[in-house]
Write a structure and sequence with these properties.
CATH superfamily of the largest domain: HAD superfamily/HAD-like
CATH class of the largest domain: Alpha Beta
Shape: elongated
Radius of gyration: 32 Å
Structural class: alpha/beta
Number of helices: 19
Low-confidence stretches: 58-67
Strand order of the largest sheet: 4-16-15-14-5-12-13
């Protein structure tokens, strides 16, 4: 049979693809229109969908665990201080003629001053505050490691359909060519004829034109080409470039007009009578209003952008040009997106990936930080990602990077503050000026200072 297949879950193409007998059909795609019979050519564990899931698991397995500096430092610092305190308690009576009670007191003062509470708590309290601040903005981050690491991002790869664009075809251009028929009549015929078809491109044309009524007779579908009918007594066809070529109605002028639209990656539909082409309709996926602003913000932060899409290269280049993206690569299946991420990591350094479909999952898992669209995204993509953007607004990505940089600054402030207070009171303890009350202040006071400093991230999120 003949039909139109929505391949967006696997390839990312925004416009459904016409399928005729003999064409391959991916598992996990959606049959939009006709009735078809399919012959299975791959076992369940060897389908495109199964290979995507396998790639996700392998990509997640390659991520190396990050050891926090504070944990490593505290593991050495704490036993070292304990040994030093024991040495003060045991050796100073022999070396400095202190009394045993005085040496034990000084050892306890040293232990309390050097207690790493403030240092150890400096990291988690800051990261938890940052995670909560992100959640208030509709950004769900799956761990402090990703919040802490986002400030180092050098490049970001972006899927097209549903991420940069709306993911729904819309009528973006209309050209009426008939000189002997009023434009209103031509557009009315197109609306009536398109309304008889359930093809996604026809639905986009109907939604983009004013509602019209007319008597439709002898309606028939032309598989893989369009539809044919008589509207108010006028014989008409509404179909693709191939149909008009077969009818020998494509002259140089028509070809030139079609080339302009096809270079922009648009799907072109033509309305024709028996004698002439009456109108051209261009349908395309449109860019989200927020995408251009998000890309500008990312570039201002020094992050390079690359589009990775399963859609054709012409469409990819057109959308990238409109959105202000540095580079675009089209006709990519999931395995190719995964390879592109690995190439970007070698070329740029720390690389993020943004997507919403099953086809994006391997690249999301393999990237250093994966951003998934939570509103329109698939469960597979959100599971593979490290950060979920709940409102599908790309501007949340540069916002995450800015929050990460602020979190990093406060984190460093807290570590310096915790160590600085300890060093000052340790010097006082060594020279015999520190008391137990001063030691308690050095411990509890420093802990409170780093807590309040970390909580400033919550105030900034309001």
């Amino acid at each position: 049979g003949n039909t139109a297949i929505n391949q967006a879950p696997v390839t990312g193409e925004s416009i459904p693809v016409d399928k005729a007998p003999g064409d391959p059909v991916f598992a996990g795609t959606i049959n939009d229109t006709g009735l078809i019979e399919m012959r299975v050519t791959a076992a369940a564990n060897n389908t495109t969908l199964a290979r995507i899931i396998d790639a996700v698991e392998k990509a997640q397995g390659t991520r190396a665990p990050t050891q926090q500096f504070v944990d490593r430092f505290a593991a050495i610092y704490t036993p070292a201080i304990f040994v030093l305190a024991v040495a003060v308690a045991v050796l100073t009576p022999w070396l400095m003629d202190w009394t045993w009670s005085h040496s034990v007191y000084k050892a306890l003062v040293l232990l309390v001053i050097a207690c790493p509470c403030a240092l150890v708590i400096a990291t988690p309290v800051t990261l938890v505050s940052g995670l909560a601040a992100a959640a208030r903005r509709g950004i769900l981050i799956k761990g402090g490691i990703y919040l802490e690491g986002a400030y180092k991002l050098k490049a970001i790869a972006l899927d097209k359909t549903g991420t940069i664009t709306e993911g729904k075809p819309k009528l973006v251009a209309t050209e009426t060519l008939a000189k002997d028929v009023p434009e209103e009549t031509v557009l009315g015929w197109a609306a009536v004829l398109a309304g008889q078809s359930d093809h996604p491109v026809s639905r986009a044309i109907v939604q983009g034109l004013a509602e019209s009524k007319g008597e439709v007779q002898e309606f028939s579908a032309l598989p893989g080409r369009g539809v044919r009918a008589s509207v108010d007594g006028q014989a008409l066809v509404l179909g693709n470039h191939r149909l008009i070529e077969e009818r020998k109605q494509c002259g140089p002028e028509i070809e030139a007009r079609l080339a302009v639209h096809e270079a922009e990656g648009r799907s072109v539909t033509l309305l024709a009578s028996d004698s002439q082409v009456l109108a051209i309709f261009a349908v395309a996926d449109t860019i989200k209003e927020s995408s251009r602003e998000a890309l500008m913000q990312l570039h201002a932060l020094g992050v390079s952008s690359v589009m990775l899409t399963g859609d054709n290269t012409a469409t990819a280049l057109s959308i990238a040009r409109q959105a202000g993206i540095d580079d675009a690569r089209g006709d990519l299946l999931p395995e190719a997106k995964l390879a592109a991420i690995e190439e970007m990591q070698k070329r740029y350094g720390l690389t993020a990936m943004t997507g919403d479909g099953i086809n994006d999952s391997p690249a999301l898992a393999r990237s250093d930080i994966g951003f998934a669209m939570g509103g329109a995204g698939t469960d597979t993509a959100m599971e593979a990602a490290d950060v979920v953007i709940m409102n599908d607004d790309l501007r949340r990505i540069p916002e995450t990077i800015r929050l990460s940089r602020r979190t990093r600054r406060i984190l460093l402030q807290n570590i310096v503050l915790a160590l600085g207070v300890k060093v000052v009171f340790l010097v006082l303890a060594i020279f015999g000026s520190a008391t137990m009350w001063m030691a308690i202040f050095a411990d509890m006071g420093a802990s409170l200072l780093v807590i309040f400093n970390g909580l400033r991230l919550l105030r900034a999120s309001k």
